[in-house]
């Protein structure tokens, strides 16, 4: 199924429904990992996967860490800004009320989280997909208490649901020898294991009232700086095995979306694949105005054990030139490029009258190379 279909669900033109006196926009409930996390891990005090140190967030708002694993905005943030859609806040943010949920939805994404419960265990605290679904059930209980069962049921069936998981199951599970999955499975059978688990999770979401679900595939994970650094035989090249597994997962996920849409009642489960877009950007950064896609803007060197950007890291002066901010996560500029490409494919600049929000100015970097 083409990526255009899924992203059109993700940034669907805002509709309105009247529920017991509330004028509620159709909102989004997002499930994911660090690529879409907007602050949940900041509240997991036992987690070592938290963007709570400089220089995360340096180009957004007051420049302090805000829960996003980048220097600015996520792709979801930018798509929302471009098209005038409210962006869901982090579930664990204590300021999130029932009224905010009705207006904006909720983001359950958690850095280190994956499809499998054991994924990211070395990060100590994180929210796997099954736990994110449990938190969604808690959200449902809160809204039912406010609106009543009938109106709440309408609200959740009209909502949009996004699922973007799987990268950690490869990079922070299968490819790490301390995890038993690397011994129990081969590349093919592990992919099948992931898809079988994901099938049950999506069925569970459907049983809880989710009807419009979009499933996002994996990018070329073997080309992120973290994976390139591990390729000691051919310096700087992508890890082809990792990329092949990502492509295999994407193929199976696409077929899964079609399968579930066929027999789950009243469901629209769509698959979106941005692999080719990201692959072209990583292989041809200069073509799109970037100078580097193999090295991160913020790093302590290729052999450093630090995966995150930390205060003692070397921070590049021109962050807009880098595809990656740290060894795993794209920069604000790369996220803006991806969001723009999605909008071009969909033609939303013509479909939506809302003007794009102004882009954040790039804060001057500390005097570091």
TrEMBL record:
Give a GO biological-process term: lipid catabolic process
Q: Which residues form the signal peptide?
A: none
> What is a GO molecular function of this protein?
hydrolase activity, acting on ester bonds
Instruction: Answer yes or no on keyword Chaperone.
Output: no
Keyword vocabulary terms for this entry: Hydrolase, Lipid degradation, Lipid metabolism
* Stored SUPFAM superfamilies: SGNH hydrolase (SSF52266)
Q: Which family does it belong to?
A: Belongs to the 'GDSL' lipolytic enzyme family.
- UniProt source species: Lithospermum erythrorhizon
Q: What is this protein called?
A: Lipase
Reply yes or no: does the keyword Transferase apply.
Answer: no
Q: Which Pfam families match?
A: Lipase_GDSL
């Amino acid at each position: 199924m083409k990526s255009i279909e899924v992203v059109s669900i993700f940034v669907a033109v805002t509709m309105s429904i009247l529920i017991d006196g509330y004028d509620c926009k159709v909102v989004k409930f997002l499930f994911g990992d660090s690529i879409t996390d907007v602050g949940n891990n900041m509240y997991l005090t036992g987690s070592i996967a938290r963007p709570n140190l400089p220089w995360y967030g340096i180009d957004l708002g007051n420049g302090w860490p805000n829960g996003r694993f980048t220097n600015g905005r996520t792709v979801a943030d930018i798509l929302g800004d471009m098209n005038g859609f409210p962006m869901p806040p982090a579930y664990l943010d204590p300021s999130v009320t029932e009224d905010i949920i009705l207006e904006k939805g909720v983001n359950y994404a958690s850095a280190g989280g994956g499809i499998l419960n054991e994924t990211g265990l070395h990060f100590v605290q994180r929210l796997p997909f099954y736990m994110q679904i449990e938190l969604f059930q808690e959200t449902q209980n809160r809204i039912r208490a406010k609106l009543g069962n009938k109106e709440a049921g309408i609200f959740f069936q009209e909502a949009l649901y996004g699922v973007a998981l799987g990268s950690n199951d490869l990079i922070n599970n299968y490819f790490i020898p301390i995890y038993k999955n690397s011994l129990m499975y081969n590349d093919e059978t592990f992919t099948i294991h992931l898809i079988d688990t994901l099938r049950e999770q999506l069925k569970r979401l459907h049983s809880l009232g989710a009807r419009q679900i979009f499933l996002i595939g994996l990018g070329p994970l073997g080309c992120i700086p973290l994976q390139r650094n591990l390729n000691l035989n051919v310096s700087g090249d992508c890890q082809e095995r990792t990329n092949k597994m990502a492509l295999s997962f994407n193929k199976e996920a696409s077929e899964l979306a079609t399968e579930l849409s066929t027999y789950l009642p009243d469901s629209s489960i769509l698959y979106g694949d941005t692999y080719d877009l990201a692959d072209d950007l990583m292989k041809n950064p200069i073509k799109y105005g970037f100078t580097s896609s193999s090295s991160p803007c913020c790093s302590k060197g290729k052999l450093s054990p630090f995966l995150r950007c930390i205060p003692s890291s070397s921070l590049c002066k021109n962050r807009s030139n880098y595809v990656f901010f740290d060894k795993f996560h794209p920069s604000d500029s790369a996220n803006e490029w991806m969001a723009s490409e999605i909008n071009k494919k969909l033609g939303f600049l013509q479909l939506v009258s809302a003007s794009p929000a102004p882009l954040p100015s790039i804060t001057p970097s500390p005097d570091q190379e």
